[in-house]
Amino acid sequence: MSVRKMLPSAPASFGRALSSSSASQSALATGKLPASSTHSNNTHITSDPKSSVPNPHSLHQFLTKRCKSGAVTLDEALRFFDYMVSMHPTPPISSFNHLLGALAKINHHHHVISCYKRLNSIALLPDIMTFNILLNCCCYMGRICDGFSVLGKILRGGYRPGTVTFTTLIRWLCMKDKIGEATRLFRNMSIFGCFPNAITYGTIIGALCKHGRVENAKQLFLEMKNRGISPNLNAYNCILHGFCCMENLEAAKGLFLKMLDERVQADVVTFNVLIDALSKKGRMAEANELIDLMIKRGHHPDRVTYNIRINALCKEGKMEEANKLVDLMIKRGQHPNTVTYNTLINAHCKEGRMKEAKALFELMTQRGQHPNTVTYTTFIDALCKEGRIEEASKLVDLMIQQGQHPDTVTYTTLVDALCKKGRINGAIKLVYLMIQQGRYPNRVTYNTLIGRICKDGRMEKVNVLLDSMIKRGQHPDTVTYTTLIDVLCKEGKLEEANKLVILMIDRGQHPNTVTYSTLIDALCKKRRMKDANKLVELMIQQGQHPNTITYNIMINGLCKNGQLEKAKDFLSEMEVKGCAPNVVTFNTLISCFADKKDTSKVVELLWRMAEKNLSPNTITISFVLSLLFKLNDEMRQEFLNLLPTFSTREQPRR
């Protein structure tokens, strides 16, 4: 089904502009390994005439030189294997290990397993090296369970598994994101009299950092050093990256300096990690200093380094400098890739410079860099923001024709645009189309739809979407709950809204300031000030600090409830807690005290405004004028004499 078919037809100008430039059970556990012959599926391999007739001399050359370097073909490896099996006496298992290892190096893992079966058939017992090769092949094929079956065979055969055996299993568990199992296996190595080395530690450290568990990784890093194992460069780079992802740049810089002190040779990856983190924080001077240090130490900036710098310049709106850096990049032999062009295209699209973005699109294809899903999604997002949904949908069809499949972000961009246009049915149909094409909506997709449907009051569809969301493993988050709480508050169902806040906390989804402020506002409107105050206390207990909006809601509620002094106390409280009041805060209080003709309080509030360099707006002036009309001539003159002088310079809008 085409995305375009869901939407009315539209001019294909943009589509043409782009299209013109686009060219089971564990097999080892059951004892049943794959039944592939050692010679199966080899008709496409061209035989090497030099080794067509194996002999003892050519076999020796093959095993000691060719296998060691990995410069073998599948055809000759299988031919030598057959020759070895037919020899009398049969060569030792170590000779077969050379051949099996060479097959594994050229990624013929299925054939390694088939050859292993042949060895069993001639009663040649494998050794620990054979098992390690076999285990690695099973893991490469994605069959980790079979890898553990090989570990069982090692133990049953009376062999002691080595560090290599465990490191292989740990590495593949980490690659499958099974960090818990990898960590348990890591900790249980000592039971078998085996201890992790620098590679084992580095593998676990890298996996922990990847999953945001930087503190655990740091503890392992220190444990490693305490055991006298020198961390390798990979371990340092992983911890550095972990610190940078947590935005703990000082810790990252400290570790980098320690690396230099310990004479650990930083590589381009090390520098790029730090340069990227500093650039993202706008600390460009420090990033440039690191690039200078990098060059002094003999490491020239690579494509990643240039892309980091170009991205930083684009985010700062310095497009001219970014273009100059691209020219320098080419001059120094680092040709821009799709990431480079995507960065530049994105910057132009965000500024509404579609003409320049299209020109870059054409340039990248001319230079042999193929647009990817990110490229197309960037254009689609820009079109959607301009309200050109039909053209965006045509571009989705074009990207599919070009072999680039829209991802969840692409579809969510269109769903959001349709929702903003009030085209809910089209958005829902698009979500179903996503699912049909194997792209499942994420929380952002669902939240976008739920938010719009709630605004339209079509609550019967919300429940259906929530069920779908949960069934697909996308559990409601803070945004989802806050949207639902807002609807319940608007419908006056405050008890249900309050229960939903408690449910959020129980399910580990912490309400944010917006969530609390929404419910506090509803309680204030119902004049339930005690309940609103309790909710403010709960908010603080849960680590969410009231912001200016929250305080304004409470002050407004107290004023309407006639509790003016308490409302004024809230103003003092927010100032003490470092939350700056705005013109709305003062207008609310001035309005109430003006109604009471309390000139002293109005004057006090106006002076506090002046001290904070806040200028009165038209609403403030209207309240003051209203009060003046209520006063007699003498009181009016006295009041005017007490008013502060406000700065005439333009104030930021609030």
Short summary:
By secondary structure, the chain is mainly α.
Task: Based on the model shown, name its key terms.
654 residues; disordered N terminus; mainly alpha; disordered C terminus
List the SSEs and their pairings.
Layout: H1 13-19, H2 27-30, H3 56-69, H4 74-86, H5 93-105, H6 109-121, H7 128-140, H8 144-156, H9 163-175, H10 179-188, H11 198-210, H12 214-226, H13 233-245, H14 249-261, H15 268-280, H16 284-296, H17 303-315, H18 319-331, H19 338-350, H20 354-366, H21 373-385, H22 389-401, H23 408-420, H24 424-436, H25 443-456, H26 459-471, H27 478-490, H28 494-506, H29 513-525, H30 529-541, H31 548-560, H32 564-576, H33 583-595, H34 599-611, H35 618-630, H36 633-642
What does this structure look like?
There is one protein chain. By secondary structure, this protein is mainly α. The chain starts with 12 loop residues before the first helix and ends in a 12-residue tail after the last helix. The chain contains 36 helices and no strands. The model is unreliable at 1-51 and 650-654 (pLDDT under 50). It is elongated, with a radius of gyration of 34 Å. The chain has helices spanning 13-19, 27-30, 56-69, 74-86, 93-105, 109-121, 128-140, 144-156, 163-175, 179-188, 198-210, 214-226, 233-245, 249-261, 268-280, 284-296, 303-315, 319-331, 338-350, 354-366, 373-385, 389-401, 408-420, 424-436, 443-456, 459-471, 478-490, 494-506, 513-525, 529-541, 548-560, 564-576, 583-595, 599-611, 618-630, 633-642.
